[in-house]
Amino acid sequence: MSAASAADEFFRRHPLQRVESPSRGLSFVLHLFGLASYAYSFAYLVLNPNPVNDSYGWHFQYLTILGLSLATGTFIMGLIADITLSPRIFAYKNALSVASTPMEVVISILYWGLRLIDERLVLPTWAPPIATTADLSFHLIPSLLLTLDLLLFSPPYSITFLPTSLLSLAIAFGYWFWVELCFSHNGFYPYPIFAQLSTPWRVVLFAGSAAVFTGSTEGLKGVYGWVNGRGIEEVGVDGRGEVKKGQ
Question: Which stretches are transmembrane (predicted)?
Answer without folding.
Answer: 28-47, 59-83, 95-114, 159-178
